[in-house]
């Protein structure tokens, strides 16, 4: 094979592996990970900016979302979030379950977020033994790795604060 043919093959491979997912059956562009979230009644701000792709089994709801690397940021200085490069779980209308790859720092401990449920205009995040509810409008904007929602802002306190309500899970005992 000539060097020109190898170069053309390499360019064709790079062109087909662009950031926009393509349906291999129809050749049409597939929806983005953010559009998939919205189709299940979730705001796109659950994922940080720059999601590189996803896999979704529509029959079971099993999914994987891919970031270009691990990601962490603070929200309003109160919460630290960490995303692994691969986030997985199951998605259905108004519910994300069996999540892995997302954790939140509560006091001095890192806890895995295992479930997100939409209840009206609130999102409830569960770490198993406790849950916290936030207004959905806090998630209309995607946070950015490293700086969250305060990127380029001189006054971080000028951003809208998160409303936090802690509720213990009534199905978990502390025996």
Automatic annotation (TrEMBL):
It comes from the Eukaryota. Keywords: Signal. The keyword Iron does not apply. Residues 1-19 form the signal peptide. This is DUF538 domain-containing protein. It comes from Turnera subulata. The lineage of its organism: Eukaryota, Viridiplantae, Streptophyta, Embryophyta, Tracheophyta.
């Amino acid at each position: 094979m000539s060097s020109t043919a190898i170069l053309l093959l390499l360019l064709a491979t790079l062109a087909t592996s662009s950031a926009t997912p393509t349906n291999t059956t129809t050749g049409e562009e597939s929806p983005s990970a953010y559009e998939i979230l919205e189709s299940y009644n979730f705001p796109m701000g659950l994922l940080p900016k720059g999601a590189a792709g996803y896999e979704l089994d529509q029959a079971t709801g099993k999914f994987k979302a891919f970031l270009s690397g691990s990601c962490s940021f603070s929200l309003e200085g109160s919460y630290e979030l960490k995303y692994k490069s691969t986030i997985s779980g199951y998605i259905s209308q108004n519910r994300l379950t069996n999540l892995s790859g997302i954790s939140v720092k509560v006091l001095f401990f890192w806890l895995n977020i295992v479930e997100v449920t939409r209840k009206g205009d609130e999102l409830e995040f569960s770490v198993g033994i406790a849950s916290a509810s936030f207004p959905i409008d806090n998630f209309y904007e995607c946070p950015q790795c490293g700086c969250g929602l305060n990127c380029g802002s001189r006054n971080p306190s000028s951003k809208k604060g998160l409303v936090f309500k802690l509720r213990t899970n009534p199905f978990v005992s502390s025996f």
